[in-house]
Amino acid sequence: MSPQVQYREAALSDLKAVSSLFDAYRQFYNCESDIESAEAWLLANFTERRSNVFVAVDAASNLLGFTQLYPALCSVDLVRYFVLYDLYVAQSHRRMGLGRGLMAAAQGWALVAGGARIELETARDNVGAQALYKALGYVRDDVFCKYSLELN
């Protein structure tokens, strides 16, 4: 990890910069660029406290990447946990340990917040991310099948 980079929870004052990264993240997953919708989504997350966003910031206060955690509950285990749904590092700053740093920031926060675990999923062909998750101790779930039902 680069010593010039700091990891912290994002603030509302970071909204424009995080929205730009969030829009790029969505484009990575083949969504059309829509910076206005990205900003509106993140603004709602900030103001309604729907998620916690963590950012990687360089010495010049530029945001280089982000990750986002959403709270969830497990009725079987009777615990609170977090879903790490978004992890993105700007193309120009990849392979520098920023993803690892963002994951560590999210993990540290989740522990303090009383989370029992962090769950995530990624595309089957995102082998770079899968290698990072495995290196950080995440275990691939081969027991449960994921299903989804579109409602619109």
Give a written overview of the molecule.
By secondary structure, this protein is an alpha+beta fold. Strand 2 and strand 3 (63-74) form a beta hairpin. The longest helix has 15 residues, at 98-112. 34% of the residues lie in helices and 24% in strands. It has helices spanning 15-28, 35-47, 98-112, 127-135; strands spanning 6-9, 52-57, 63-74, 79-89, 118-120. It has one domain (6-135): Aminopeptidase. It is built from 4 helices and 5 strands. The protein is globular, with a radius of gyration of 15 Å. The chain has a 5-stranded mixed sheet, sandwiched between helices.
Keywords summarizing the entry:
alpha+beta, 34% helix, Aminopeptidase, 152 residues, single chain, 5-stranded mixed beta sheet
Strand order of the main beta sheet, please? 1-2-3-4-5
Could you describe the largest sheet, including whether it forms a barrel? 5 strands, mixed
**Total number of helices:** 4
Report Rg: 15 Å
**Could you name the CATH class?**
Alpha Beta
Mean pLDDT: 93
Report the span from N to C terminus. Answer: 42 Å
Task: Kindly summarize this structure in a few lines.
With 152 residues, the protein is α+β, with helices and mostly antiparallel strands. Helices cover 34% and strands 24% of the residues.
Secondary-structure map:
Elements: E1 6-9, H1 15-28, H2 35-47, E2 52-57, E3 63-74, E4 79-89, H3 98-112, E5 118-120, H4 127-135
Parallel strand pairs: 4-5
Antiparallel strand pairs: 1-2, 2-3, 3-4
Helix pairs in contact: 1-2
